[in-house]
Amino acid sequence: MDAWDKALGRAMFTEDYYVDYLLANALFIKQVLSPMPHARIKKIDASRALSISGVHGVFTASSIPGENQVGYAIPDQPLIAEGKVRYAGELVALVAASDFDKAIRGAEEVVVDYEPLPALLDPLEAMERRDVLVHEERGSNIAFQTRVRKGNVEEGFSKAHVVVENEYRLHHQEHAYLETEAALAIPESEGRVTVIGALQYPHLGQKIVSRVLGVPMSKVKIVAPYIGGGFGGKDDEGPLTCAKAALVAYLTGRPAFILYSREDSIRVHPKREAAVIRYKSGVDAGGKLTAIEVTIIHDTGAYANRGPFILWRATMHASGPYEVPNAKVDGYAVYTNKVYQGSFRGFGNLSIQFAVERQMDLLAEKLGLDPVEFRLRNILREGSYTLTSQLLDHSVGVGEALKRVAEKADWWRKRREIEEFNKSSERFKRGIGVAVAWHGISTSRAVPDWSNAYVKVELDGSVTVYTGIVEMGQGSPTSSHVQIVSEILGVPVDKVKVVFATTEAPDSGATHASRGTGIGGLGVLVAAAKIRERLASLAGRVLGVDPGELEFKDGRVYSRRDPSKSISWRDLVREAYARGVEVSATGYYYLPKGRFDESTGQGFAYPAYSYIVLVTEVEVDTRTGLVRVLRVYPGLASGKIINPKQVEGQIEGAIAQAIGYTLMEYLYFDEYGRVLNANFTDYVIPTPKDIPEIEKPVYVEDKFRHGAFGAKGVGEMALIPGPASIANAVAHALGVNITSTPLTPWRLLEYIKRSPRG
Ligand code: MTE
Ligand code: MOS
Fold first, then answer.
1. Per-residue pLDDT tens for 54-69?
2. From the CA of 517, which ligand is nearest?
3. Is the torsion defined by CA of 733, 735, 739, 744 positive or negative?
4. 525/421 same-domain check
5. What is the pTM (predicted TM-score) of this model?
6. Atom from ligand 2 closest to the CA of residue 511
């Protein structure tokens, strides 16, 4: 719906509101960030900054009128550092000035006196240390632990014919969204404040702003305009960005605008978790998995943030989409003095599926089985029990997706041909790899999840939808929500307008966990269905037919049995207004939850899983160490595909991010835990030239009982097995065992040096 506006530059992003409307009176905010990884704050001297003309204020923890607490899962995080700093990049003060330059100069003149403390940068060390604590009050550097105990692993391994054991290391990832974090806060009468900001969950922003300001949530209105990429990063940092702007606006009584520089953005906001994963798997002579034993250690960084959810997700997905009768999994999220971890497309799951899918290839090789064949012997199907012993009673299309993608990619023939090619090619080696992944839909275990939206039909028959779901490029509110309404009410898509990303809509939950369409769309569906039911009964009376036989289509309502009995949608709506039939409704849907035992990690983890398969072909230049991804074959078992074009876009974007993560992106830290490459010169992301041919996806529409029209979720999917599928292809090309990322040229040359063929 918004393609033209975006293509022509008419779509409004947060910064546009500042530039176009409010420049005259608004204050610009610059952040003062800690250069120290771990230190006590002894004194903050703002006098020199305040003496600069145009600097209106310097705000620190002590300026906060409400609660200085923004911890997501654990209350361990201040909005502005208080007493001590825990990572280089932590916010210490906000400087507000009449323009950019003055704010920047002011920030440079804020003098902070730090007393350095020993810094912990390595999670394995931090786990053991008791003498240095990132959070003294917590008594340990382990922020959170998880476990799964299923069956008996000793017995499982005793039945194993082949056992494979490895330690995997996965690195951080920066979101690199085109739009950095931004928020514009406008103080209003009666102590109200409105914030226009780039965030993925307006109602969470509302909650945090209200807590920081100490005002009721009803006085805080949050709206996200178009967002220039979120990818999870703005789920974490977005509400904090809004709170920073709101704080300054509230304290100064003037509009306040914050826009992170690229450098600040990379230093400040949470990253994809770095992980150490120890993985042992056993398989019997028939090629069936007998047991897994896994230890997952996440470098959580300075604050827990979503760490518990990230670790929990990693733990409960640790088997991959396979049947495993015996399992022991232990997870640790460990505090360090580094930028903290947060949401990033497929969080928790990408790193664990990397380990799972490397293990699957190694097991297949040892068994002398084809990697696809071996996976098919173990793949989850309807009637399977998951790692958490949850029965999958429906919506399990992964096996079929794997078969169909392998056929489409001509897997078996290509595998052989490539092996032949490699025998005769010295410098260039080719490889083809497969990786499969699953991803729990909706929130986990007992954490409540619901959908909610408000739909109203205007007097002229057009329809307005209000939702908190945001538009950050993925298109759920502007495409699939529109389609859902159009399908149910039979009005053309150009008559449906979705007002998205606003706290003036009912709390629709976050636009994360790939829930925007499948779950976010449910509320819209329920509301539209309520209106349809009322209008059907009215139309039945008007036309003298049974409401059950009415079709709503193309702006008309007619009897399926006798299409001459019809009324136009517009007339029907006018009739409803005239006769007192309500044509607005809220739609609410509460997702099913089950029992879960945290001590054994057994029970109901998610109401369903989305599945994905990627087959990837690569070419490796053994002289330079450069890997080129040549072609990717995707396949989804993600329930109903509501907008195929949009889904293709999601797959392509996620594959680009997977290529970046696997082959080029890396966050370098110095000995103080400072990010060395906080810019796009040194933090290298892919360009269009790095993007391979991406084949049309295979869709197995294994509909989900509780998703809108059976949709599950696709937004994160293709990133999850992306790195594993590339690594498996590179391992196939070179005959090496790949256990860590990234596969930058210099690291690949090391692999080649060590390889048996090299
Ligand atoms: N696509 C674009 N273009 N921009 C984004 O920021 N975020 C991803 C994915 N696709 C993102 C994106 C992430 S992390 C999630 S969770 C989903 O979109 C959320 O949106 P959906 O559930 O509505 O698909
Ligand atoms: Mo996506 S990481 O769940 O916002």
1. 999 999 999 999 999 9
2. 1
3. negative
4. no
5. 0.97
6. 4
